[in-house]
Design a protein that fits this description.
single chain, alpha/beta, Rossmann fold, 2 domains, 6-stranded mixed sheet, 25% strand
Length: 254
């Protein structure tokens, strides 16, 4: 990373152990503001564990996590979210009977002062309808706003999940396998979508599809055995002999 650029999210010596097994081992990571930064590596390399540490879903065994200048080491997910971080999950969890519009209105409500109320009227919820419609348009789902989420195709569900993350108006957007399980057409559409919504945001993504990484990432961190193996641009890391060996050498993390 260019030392002169502000850092959106960073780690120093970040470590996570599970019953004696070190899943993330002293990782130093610095993601520049405005970048798309990809975390890649063989299966079991520690990508998802690192992702869960960054978002507060796991507490580190050691090291430090910072959002900008704020130390968030060990902070719960809700605090990290309030500081401007939103994430999507590898496995989509939606309410099948709710429409897309209702999903977005509820997400916008959750980010407002009204979230503390036990009961909110339809009239109060309607104040979010215009913004909900804008977000659905942004991810290409505007014409499906009144459709129940359970009827969507898989790629459309992932687009809805991205809209829900954007409803929090995050400074940092973390995407866990955003193209997992998609056909080529949906992959291309998702890459184009992420390319649009990255404007004004920092994006960190875990991704196995290296063509997606090539099309989106400004920087790539390759993990192996819970440690940083290589970091650089896509072109720099793809030709590195250590990366080639990690993927093709027949040895991967458990």
């Amino acid at each position: 990373m260019d030392a002169g650029r502000p850092t959106a999210i960073s780690t120093t010596g970040l470590t996570k152990q599970f019953h004696g097994f070190t899943a993330v081992n002293a990782v130093d990571l610095a993601v520049a503001e405005g970048d798309v930064h990809a975390l890649v590596g063989p299966n079991g390399a520690g990508k998802t564990t690192l992702f869960n540490l960054l978002t507060g879903f796991l507490k580190p065994s050691g090291g430090q996590i910072r959002l900008g200048d704020t130390d968030v080491t060990g902070a719960p997910p809700e605090r990290i979210a309030r500081l401007g971080v939103a994430r999507s999950f590898q496995i989509t969890s939606l309410f099948d009977q709710l429409t897309l519009q209702q999903h977005l209105e509820m997400a916008l409500l959750a980010g407002s002062s009204l979230r503390y109320r036990f009961w909110v009227s339809d009239r109060a919820l309607s104040r979010f309808s215009d913004r909900a419609a804008e977000l659905l348009d942004e991810v290409g789902l505007g014409r499906h706003r009144d459709v129940e989420a359970g009827t969507l195709a898989y790629g459309q569900k992932r687009a809805l999940e991205l809209a829900l993350a954007l409803a929090l108006d995050p400074k940092v957007l973390l995407l866990d396998e955003p193209t997992a399980g998609m056909g080529l057409e949906d992959v291309d559409r998702t890459v184009e979508l992420i390319g649009r919504v990255r404007s004004g945001r920092t994006v960190v993504l875990v991704e196995h599809n290296m063509s997606v990484v090539a099309g989106l990432a400004d920087r790539v961190t390759v993990l192996q055995f819970g440690q940083v193996l290589v970091e650089g641009t896509y072109d720099e890391v793809r030709g590195d002999s250590r990366v080639i060996d990690a993927y093709l050498g027949g040895e991967s993390a458990a």
